[in-house]
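Subgroup meeting minutes
Present: P.N., E.W., G.H.
Scribe: E.W.

1. P.N. recapped why we're keeping a running log of single-chain structure predictions: easier to compare across weeks, and new members can see raw inputs and outputs side by side.
2. G.H. added today's entry (321 aa).
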Amino acid sequence: MKKKFIALIIVFLIFNNYSQLFCQIRPKTTAKEYIEKYKNIAIKEMKKHNIPASITIAQGMLESGLGKSKLATKANNHFGIKCHKDWNGKTFRKNDDKRRECFRKYNSVEESFKDHSYFLSQRSRYKFLFSYKISDYKSWARGLRKAGYSTNPRYPKLLIAIIEEHELHKFDSKRHKNTKSKDQKNKYFSRSDFSKVTKFEFVSINRNNRKIYKNNGVKLIIAEHGDSYKKISNEFNIYTYQIFKYNDLKKTKKINPGQIIYLQSKKKKNKINSHKVKANDTMYTISQLYGIKLKKLYSHNNIISGTKIKEGQVLLLDRSK
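Output recorded in log:
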């Protein structure tokens, strides 16, 4: 009787321990689930920045351990991007190559994907990657290692293996679409002007992963899909009327993606002496492009407000010169 009682206790304890262990086990994210969850963000970023979606997804899977690493769960950082000098956002400390290294912390995983695109597209050491076709994931994988993204000599092989095992290259078949015709319909900011945005001085990235530039000494942002005057005013702690005033805008006008939005008052003049009018230029787009108040641009050139300008016409940006 005593032996049976002891045996029952042992069985109970074993069962109890296993039941507790089973309750603690959580279903792990599979590769398929990770891909399904983030593929649309990767494709969206591919269309915007010309980075293969397969590379983005594979890096996310590898660097974050399918989103289960401490860095991913605690900081939404899926690409292991460290702070660097230009980072002004939230931070997360963890041991890596050195003790308590600084990593970027994001409000969401999508912010991490966006910053990954900015990180690759804005640093000169990765510039050569963009000469490769979107479909050439192998060159991208080898190029990332060459540029120093990872110190692991097997990094390219790991990325390529992930891409081919899960057929991620199928997401790279959609080429980046040329939206030139659509952008040129935007009377505030034409596609021909957009190439000059890269000449703006980069200042920082805010907590919402928004890039802030300077032009003619004035801070600005480039409007994105879903932006509104209220959203921008809340994000930068300024009044909506200030946005209208700083950008010579009427309240009835909507914000268009790609539009330059100044966060401070524009200047009365620019160090550049003049501007030769191109097709689709307006006095407004020129004033935005050079960070000059619209009224001052009219005044420098003795032009009555509302007068149309002609292609080839030379406009002064500083009357004193």
